[in-house]
Design goal:
This protein is α/β, with parallel strands linked by helices and 230 residues long. The protein contains ten helices and five strands. The chain has a five-stranded mixed sheet.
Length: 230
C-alpha cells in the first residue's frame, strides 16, 4: 500500500481512536468468547481490516524516512549558524549512517557529528551508546581540524559523559568500536567519566536547539522538570 498520507492517518485513527491503550483494552474484553464463526463480524466491528494493517505498515515505512529527513534538514539548517567567514563545506553526509564518509560534516576548518535526538531521561542506553560512539570517533580522529558534536540540548549528553556507566557496557554492541578502543587504551579507562575527563577538551559539544526550535519545542521545560525533581 502506498496511499496518500491523509488516508493512512484516517484509517489508523479509525482503528486506534483517541486513545489506543483504551481501544485495545476494549477489544481485549470484547474478544472473549468469539469463535471462528464470529471472527469476520468481530473484526469488522473492531475496525481491524487488512487495509488498516497495510496503512500501519506504510506508516512504519514513512516513519523511517522521516528520521532520515529530520537528520538531513537539521544539518542543512545548522550550516548558516556554524560556518565561520571563509569556511567552506567539503562534504556533508545526509543519509542514514555516514555512507562511506568519516563524519556528518567536514569543512576546511572542522569535522562534526550531529545528533537530533530527544532525550527522555532514564536509562537511554541506545542513545548513550550512539553519543559515545560519535564522541570517541571524533576525539580519536587524527585530523588537526576543530571537532564538534552538535546535539539537541546538552544537558542529558553531558550528564551521561560525566557519569559512571561502564565502558564494557557502552561498547558491548559495537564490535568494531570496542576493538579499536581496547586496542588503543587497554584497561586504562573503565567508565565513561574516566574517558571523558581525559578528552573533554578535544571535542566541543554544542547545543543546536536555538537554531532548530521546531525540534526542541519542549526541550527546556523537560530539562527544568528533571532538574527540579532530581
Amino acid at each position: 500500500m502506498k496511499a496518500d498520507p491523509a488516508e493512512i492517518i484516517r484509517l489508523l485513527s479509525k482503528f486506534t481512536g483517541p486513545d489506543l491503550t483504551h481501544t485495545l483494552g476494549q477489544i481485549e474484553g470484547a474478544v472473549r468468547g468469539v469463535s471462528a464463526d464470529d471472527c469476520d463480524a468481530f473484526l469488522e466491528g473492531a475496525g481491524a481490516g487488512r487495509e488498516v494493517l497495510a496503512a500501519a505498515g506504510e506508516m512504519k515505512r514513512l516513519a523511517g524516512q522521516i528520521n532520515v529527513t529530520i537528520h538531513a534538514l537539521g544539518i542543512l539548517l545548522c550550516l548558516p549558524h556554524i560556518l565561520d567567514p571563509g569556511e567552506k563545506v567539503e562534504y556533508v553526509s545526509l543519509g542514514a549512517g555516514n555512507t562511506g564518509r568519516e563524519f556528518d560534516l567536514e569543512t576546511n576548518l572542522r569535522v562534526a557529528e550531529f545528533k537530533f535526538i530527544r532525550w527522555r531521561g532514564g536509562a537511554e542506553t541506545i542513545r548513550q551508546n550512539s553519543i559515545f560512539k560519535d564522541y570517541v570517533l571524533l576525539a580519536e580522529s587524527p585530523t588537526p581540524k576543530r571537532k564538534y558534536l552538535y546535539v539537541l540540548g546538552t544537558h542529558h549528553a553531558l550528564k551521561f559523559l560525566h557519569g559512571g556507566r561502564a565502558l564494557s557496557s557502552v561498547l558491548s554492541r559495537n564490535d568494531k568500536l570496542q576493538k579499536m578502543f581496547f586496542d588503543r587504551f587497554g584497561d586504562r579507562f573503565r567508565t565513561v567519566r574516566e574517558y571523558y575527563a581525559a578528552h573533554a577538551g578535544v571535542v566541543r559539544i554544542e547545543d543546536v536547539s536555538p537554531w532548530l526550535s521546531e525540534l526542541a519545542e519542549d526541550l527546556l521545560d523537560e530539562t527544568l522538570l528533571e532538574e527540579a525533581t532530581g
